[in-house]
Amino acid sequence: MRRQRGYAHSLKELLSGGEYLDTVCANLYQRVMNNPVCAACEHFRYCNGGCMALGTLYSPEVPDVFGSDLTKCVFYRNGWYRKAVSAMSGWRNETEIRP
Ligand code: SF4
Predict the structure, then answer these.
(1) What is the CA(92)–ligand 1 centre distance, in A?
(2) Phi, psi (5° rounding) for residue 7?
(3) Between the CA of residue 78 and those of 14, 17, 44, 72, 73, what are the distances in Å?
(4) Can you give the residue ranges of every domain in the chain?
(5) 1-46 pLDDT, tens digit each
(6) In Å, what is the CA distance from 20 to each residue of 17, 35, 60?
(7) Model's pTM, two decimal places?
(8) Ligand 1 nearest-atom number relative to CA 48
């Protein structure tokens, strides 16, 4: 297959290793170790730091793939847990958030 002009890497090269693959395959431990805000957040067990693309987009100064996904911060911090628990009132809560 011919490589199109303007692309530095083929799709095969991108999916065979390197920085891109390291980034998209980052695990939760790496996310916690690289984001102290998410590491301390009571919602992390549900949110897992949110979307890495949005975390990068909303990084305050330099793009950071481990940045917090602010859309998830708004979602979780505006009563999501209370609403979910209320909506599931007949169910046993196995993952209770404790202050
Ligand atoms: S709600 Fe925000 S701070 Fe908490 S884990 Fe999700 S992205 Fe991180």
Answers:
(1) 24
(2) -100, 130
(3) 38, 39, 15, 10, 8
(4) 11-87
(5) 555 566 777 888 878 888 888 888 899 999 999 999 999 999 999 9
(6) 7, 19, 22
(7) 0.75
(8) 5
